[in-house]
Amino acid sequence: MKIVLHLGGHRTGSTMVEQTLSQSIAARPDLGISVWTPRMLREVPGFLEAETFWDEDGNPTDADAQERVQSIRAQLNEMIEAERAKGTQTLVISEENIIGSMRRNFHYGRFYPRTEQRQAAFARLFPFVPDVLALGVRNYASAWTSARDYAHQRGHERALKASHRDALPDRKRGWVEVVKAAKAAWPTARMIAWCQEDLQEYARPIVAALVGVDEGDIVVPTRPVNAVRDNQRQAPIFTQEEQAIMQTRYENHILRLHGAKHGVAWVPFGGS
Description:
Distance between the termini: 32 Å
Largest sheet: 6 strands, parallel
Strand content: 5-15%
CATH class: Alpha Beta
Number of domains: 1
CATH architecture: 3-Layer(aba) Sandwich
Mean pLDDT: 93
Low-confidence stretches: none
Number of helices: 10
Structural class: alpha/beta
Radius of gyration: 19 Å
Shape: globular
């Protein structure tokens, strides 16, 4: 059974990818594809606490942590065996909080701080090694603004401290660090990526590449998925000049990630 670990990221259309997969499975159950959504994983007690189970050297922090790790691994193993028993050929595990959380991003005013430690913790926790890593990326300015507006829509407030907001346009940390952390955590896995800006037009080839099927087998939702409603949109976090700076950095990071040393296959035609 092939395992695909879909890492998000936040506000890059990850829910659209999940729903596209679900509709495709409903239309073609013979494809042998199954999807674990974030909700399924978060029902495993302690799953999202993986980062707290190990110290900086990768050792369990105490006996209780070791016991919790064993319990989570046992539950995940049962879920994996259930997939094998029903004949699943490709299992997509989707959880964007493996790379970090937007709450932490806003709190520290940094782009996925400690994603290196967090992804390494999940690599230790999982009782399997994924065959494929999948990641959607997005322009930095719009990702921050969309995350704030979506949180507001759901009744949560996210705000950057003024000092953090002013520093972000010049911060160099971004998707490159997320990709490096993923490749370090799962060095044998093949990695594919796409730009959120391409997803609406190219959802079919992107999702087809993620699970390794023909584009004709993919059914894309006709309605917007998990989008921020127009009446919930607030003023952009960044000025037009700052947005231009962040767009340039985003484009430069995409170009860097096209380099052979990162081992990322871009869908559908190299990003934008």
